[in-house]
Every structure is written in C-alpha cells, then in structure tokens.
Write a structure and sequence with these properties.
The protein is an alpha+beta fold. The protein has 4 domains: about 25-130, Uridine Diphospho-n-acetylenolpyruvylglucosamine Reductase, domain 2; about 130-250 and about 335-360, Uridine Diphospho-n-acetylenolpyruvylglucosamine Reductase, domain 3; about 250-335 and about 365-465, 3-Layer(aba) Sandwich (Vanillyl-alcohol Oxidase, Chain A, domain 3); about 485-535, no CATH class. About 30% of the residues lie in helices and about 20% in strands. It contains 16 helices and 18 strands. The protein has helices at about 30-35, 45, 55-65, 85-100, 150-160, 180-185, 190-195, 215-220, 220-225, 265-275, 310-320, 340-345, 380-390, 445-465, 495-505, 510-520, and strands at about 50, 80, 105, 125-130, 135-140, 145, 165, 200-205, 215, 235-245, 245, 250-260, 285-295, 295-310, 335, 365-375, 405-410, 435-440. It has a 7-stranded antiparallel sheet with strand order 15-12-14-13-17-18-16. The protein starts with about 25 loop residues before the first helix and ends in a 16-residue tail after the last helix. Residues about 1-25 have low confidence and may be disordered. Its main location: secreted.
Length: about 525
Amino acid sequence: MLNPNCFNFLTLFISLVSLPSPTISQSSSLTNFLHCLHYGSDPIVSQSIYIASNPAFQTILQARIKNRRFLNPETLKPVAIVVPTRIDHVQGTVICAKDNGLQIRIRSGGHDYEGLSYRSNVTFIILDMSNFRSVDIDVRTETAWVQSGATLGELYYHIANKTNMHGFPSGVCPTVGIGGHFSGGGFGNLMRKYGLSVDNILDIIAVDALGNVHDRASMGEDLFWAIRGGGAASFAVVVSYKIKLVRVPNKVTVFRKGFTLEQGATDLVHKWQQVAPNINEEFFIRVKLEPSFINGNQTVTATFIGFFLGRREKLLPIISKTFPELNLTQQDCHEMRWVETTLFWAGFPIGTPIETLLNRTIWTPLFFKNKSDYVKNVIPKESLNKIWKMTMAMMNRNDINKIRFDLECSPYGGKMNVIPESNTPFPHRKGNLFLIQYAFSWIDEGSNVSFNNIKKLRKLYDGMAPYVSKDPRECFLNYRDLDIGSSPSNETSFDDAKIYGRKYFKDNYTRLTKVKASVDPNNFFKYEQSIPPIK
C-alpha cells in the first residue's frame, strides 16, 4: 500500500467539498497587507496573490490539500494565498505579514499529515512555494540545487535525465514537496547506505523573520543545523537546497513478496527484525503488515519490499545466507535503473514511464490519520500474535474497499548507526531497529466516521506501548501527529512544546529553542508544533 497521502482507490470517485470563508475576509490587516505588497499596482505581485474574491482562490487552496479531513466547513480558510515567483516576493510576504499581524503557513507539497502547512485557527495567509520548483543538476561536482516547491518525483526525474549513476536518499512518494520532506529529515530506501536527506544537504537559501536572504555562510552554522530536520517553518522560509548526489549502480534490484499468517508470516517478521537492521547496508527491506481477507477469512499479510544496490546474482546468495526463510527466487527479483525503482516503491507497475514522476496530481486525496513509533528491541513471537489481533480489529469484512490500514516497518542500521544523534536535529539514529508508520486511510465522509476511525487508531497505538521506545516515546517529524502534544495556533507554550519537542528531537530540542531565540526571538514563525524561543 502507498502512504495514505499518496494512495489512490482506483475504482472510487471522491468529490471535493467546499471550504468556508474566513471569519474576516477583508479585515484591515488584510487590506494593509495587500497595500504593503503593492497589490493592484504591481502586475507581477498581483498575479501571485489570491484572495477569496478571486475565482481561482478555491482551486489554488485545494490543489495541495492532501488530507480530506481538512476539506470541511469547520476548517478556516486563509485570507490570502501568496504563490511567489521571485525571492523578493517571499521577502515581501514575510515583512508585510509580520508588520500587519498576519500568521504565515508555508506550503510546498501540502503533505503535512495534520495539514499545518495550510490551516490555522487564527487569521492567516498561505505562502505557497509551488512555483519554486527548479532542479539544477551538476554531474561533474555530484551536486544539485533544488527549490523547496519541487517534488521528490521531479528531483528524481531530473537526476535521471542527467545520469544513471547517481541518486538521492529521499522518500518513496513522488508528489511530496521537497520543502516539507527535507524539513523533517527525509528518509527512504537509501538511508542505510547514505543516511537521510538532511545528511546530504550542503547549502540552503532561506528568508528569515526580518525578510533577509541568507545562504549557509551568512545564516551561520546554528541556523543551518536547525533547518535540516528541525522543522524549518519554525525558523525561516527555505527557498532552495544544495544537495550532494550519491552514487548508485547502473542497475539495482527490487523485490516484493507477501505471506499470510497461515504461510508463516509470524516467523518471518520475527526473523526480519534481526536481519533487516543488520544486513549489508546496500539492502533496504521494509515489511508492510496489513489486515486482509483471504477466501472470506481474516488474516494479516506481511509483504516484504526490498531494494538492493546491485544485481540479483549478488543479492540472492546474501539473502540465502542471512534470510533463507524468505525463499527469494530469481523470478522475484527485478533489475532496473535507480530512477525506475522510485516508481516501483510508489506502487506503480514495472515499466511505468519515468515521466509519471512529473505528475503532481497522480492520486486523489483521502481522509487519513497516521502515527509513528521506534522499536529498539526485537518483538517476541507471542507479542507479535497480540499485535496481529489488534491489527485485525482495525477493520472487518464490511470495510473492504472502504479503508486501508497497515504498519509500515522500515529498518535502520547501516549508516544510521554511524551518524551522531546531534549531527542534525533528527536524533533517531543508533539503537533503533526499525521505524513504524501506522497508516490509516478511509473514503467515507462525515465527522463521526473520522472520529471513530481515529479512535480505533489511538487504541491500537496505546496497545503498542510495551513494544516501542520509552521516555520519551519517540516520533518522526515527517509523520506529524498532533496527538503527542501541541500548542494553540497563535502562541507556543514552552511547556507544551517540551513534550512534543522531546519526542521528535530528544536532547536536540534544547539547542533548537536556543537557535529559535537567536533568529526569531519574537516567535513570528509559529504553528501548533513549532519550536519556541527558550525562556
């Protein structure tokens, strides 16, 4: 299954609902903001700003809302959407919003799991970075400049257009925006070899709370450190990144193989926990666990999805030695270019044209709620059996084709064990066996449906507590979850922030608050899970 923000129920049509107008659509703050930006007098600026009276406003707003839970009458609209085409538009938006008491929400791809890049409970504007989408590849220096509004798919496509011997360690959903993905750390199936996206960022262009433009040299190493995995929207507006391309073979190998409980899935998952984090770092083997119905009987299916930086003749002997129970055959393994594996991992059929990576609207938005956990010790078989029962309780026979639920388990180890926890704000390094994403999506509308589905997910999450990290129960920022703690939209409670801050960043949280105090002491850049300036 694809991540819920990517997955498309191919046989079902989902219509979008209208959103409400803001309580104050033409307030004095908005009028002054527009005047500050020379709205109406500068044609280029005017074409980049959408207010509620603009016929395109609704289309622009909904184009990058990926979670239908926030396409409802209760979700407040922004008073304006700024879609800049030049960096001075970004600077002006920051300065004018700050001067007129308007909150900014920064959106690149719109995949924030809790919608915090496009919603707030106070009067706000959206700074939509989708026009900042250029990708400039330099094969000679093995680097690239990529703007924050580009998508992962666009990055992958442009790399492949210049070289078959390079790639970049990022996620598997091609429509995810670069800005949000890099901001939270960014991980994918190259991380055991090369680390996270943020471990391969060389420079950043960003606009600070005063409207000044900085690169790495002028912003200083503290801010450069903070916006590589610490939630950049707490500190600045990132415009572009200089990244280090990583080397990949001309051909790599992928596989996908599933087993039900009746076919020995419990033994295989137990063994996977011991193999996947410790196998050669050229491997990345994810296991996806989902309730299913086979011949009318409920079970759990464990699907092993593998990636290997090499040919299958090298892969098979290693798997035969380390994980023979998988019974992997030559027919299970598919060789292809690295760029083609990005489509395979996104769920597309083998042979899908790589131009598909450029399509920003592949999937129809769903209702979804996701959560995350880190596992540090092997879960015993008897505990796995308890997990299967909780997993099967997430759906019944009547839910087929209406909901999707799975536990996506991604192994750590390799390079992740080598990079120190303090190297970037992302702290989840050595000591973790794997990351769990609880991915729950549904198609039925209604607040009661969402309430009941989220309640079921929270119950399972509570039941998983004995098997995952503790003190704190760690979470992954890219899988944002407001259940772990939040502040009101227009203020950041230091005590509240300490709760979610430690879960996302562990001991790096304190340094983040110090950086915040240095670069944005008045807390202009804020949202429900932002970093506050230290008291």
